[in-house]
Amino acid sequence: MVKSLRQSPEGDQPWTETLQRHIAYGQKGRALRLLEKVIERDMPLFENLPSVQENKRIAWLYRIDLLRDWGRLSEALAWTCLECELHPENLAAQILKDMLKESLHLQVKPSDEAPTVAIKKGVQGAWHGVAGMREVKAVLERDIILPLRDREMAQKFKVRLPRGVLFYGPPGCGKTFITRKLAGILNFAFIEVKPSDLASPYVHGGQARIGSLFEEAKKKAPALIFLDEFDAFVPNRQSQGVSYHYGAEVNEFLAQLNDCWKSKILVVGATNLIENLDPAVLRPGRMDVHVFIGPPDIEARLELIKQFMQDRPQKDMNWPELAEKTDFYTSAEIEHLIDEAAKYAFQERRPIIQQDIHSVMGANPPRLNKEKIEEMKKPIGFL
């Protein structure tokens, strides 16, 4: 039943996919009308379900994000002010209202002027270079960026500041890139760590290095620690083949994670193997925010194809159609398609045409499919 609630008011397709298609085809009016239907949809039997409320919150953030991208800041401010009146408990709306006022050079209350953390000013262009992926960006803005931007407001609403963020999903889908962008938006020092950086030949040597890592972050604070291949840092201590000395290292990491937010340190872990994580790291108060990073959506694929095709001889390209046809391809796979299509055209000394890309796709299907992605997207809970 909950699955049906995610369907688009315009048909059987999930509303997020329908919205992305409207955006990819430049249908701004249709995109905004669809969002209005999702936000205002009257469903008395299910209106209090958490999934329904989350859909409406995400749709509201989508609308503000699109209006900001399109330079319609006054309209975005009007909707945000209305949301603040209707739902004064909406922390994201309260902080976004002040951000929009700043961008429009309108007066902001003195008490709200100085954010505790110096987030990059301006509401446009913060995610420049990250095409599409609007649901991911909306969740990060609501749960990470806005609470950190105004800690006093978050405290007023009793919103706990995030301790850590877990990015999970298939490889090659931009987890590292998005993390770097997040650090840039927050104006946090970026510290990237791989498992080999903390490896030690001595028993408990890794434990000491974990402590040193957090000490280094404290000196650079505010800082973002990015732990790639996170499952190697905190493997499930109950799994066979996990050395006993990992217990002390996992305990050390959990202890550091518990208090890092007080030192203005945000931890982001990325994994392709979420089932290998120690369950303790996913309990409340630790890696609080779980974000699935899947293959690029149609809006992102559209920009990727244009980017990879840039400055190559070409003709007769239908960008939105190519973006639709490349569903489930990762960024790396899309780049490979374009490179191979270019080889076909080069051999015949002619511009690249759309059929070249279609021919390459026939010989190179995506490694992912809908079933695999849905399996990966299942709520992870506490494992």
Task: Trace the largest sheet across and list its strands.
Answer: 2-3-4-1-5
Q: Figure out the total of helices.
A: 18
Assembly state of the chains shown:
single chain
Q: What integer value in Å does the Rg equal? A: 22 Å
For the secondary structure, the number of strands is: 5
Mean pLDDT, all residues = 84
Helical content (DSSP H or I, runs of 4+): 40-55%
Strand content: 5-15%
Number of domains: 3
Biggest sheet descriptor:
5 strands, parallel
Q: Name the helix and strand elements from N-terminus to C-terminus, one letter apiece.
A: HHHHHHHHEHEHHEHHEEHHHHH
Based on helices, strands and strand pairing, what is the structural class? alpha/beta
Shape: globular
Q: State the end-to-end distance.
A: 24 Å
Low-confidence stretches: 1-6, 111-124, 200-205
Verbal overview:
The structure is a single chain. Helix 11 runs parallel beside helix 13, helix 14 (298-309) crosses helix 15 (319-325) and helix 14 (298-309) packs parallel to helix 16. The chain has helices at residues 2-5, 15-24, 28-40, 50-69, 73-86, 91-103, 134-149, 151-156, 175-186, 195-198, 205-220, 230-233, 246-259, 298-309, 319-325, 331-347, 354-363, 370-377; strands spanning 164-168, 189-193, 223-227, 265-271, 289-292. The chain is of the alpha/beta class and 383 residues long. The chain folds into three domains: 2-155; 164-295, 3-Layer(aba) Sandwich (Rossmann fold), CATH 3.40.50.300; 298-367, Helicase, Ruva Protein, domain 3 (Orthogonal Bundle). It has a five-stranded parallel sheet, sandwiched between helices. Mean pLDDT is 84; it is low at 1-6, 111-124 and 200-205. The chain has 18 helices and five strands. It is 52% helix and 7% strand.
